Amino acid sequence: MSILLSTMEKRFSEISMALKKEGVTVGSGDGLYVICRRGNDSQRAVQLLHKMGFSAAKDIIGGLESWARDVDLNFPCY
């Protein structure tokens, strides 16, 4: 699911319904990972998700660029 950080709070019910479809519920210990290009916005998104009750939300440190550099050298960067 792709959501702009600036719209997260307004789209809480949509996010909750989408996560519920995937079996992730508010307050559950299920993994919820957030990623962005460099990791800055995903950190802020995780803070918002924690405020919304998704305490298991985590970000991918360093974002897609870090993933491409450290994990999957064939991953395309933009």
UniProtKB/TrEMBL annotation:
The organism's place on the tree of life at top rank: Eukaryota
InterPro entries: Rhodanese-like_dom, Rhodanese-like_dom_sf
Coiled coil: none
Domain Rhodanese per the UniProt entry, residue ranges: 14-76
SUPFAM superfamilies noted in UniProt: Rhodanese/Cell cycle control phosphatase (SSF52821)
Gene3D superfamilies noted in UniProt: Rhodanese-like domain
UniProt protein name: Rhodanese domain-containing protein
Species in which this protein is naturally found: Escallonia herrerae
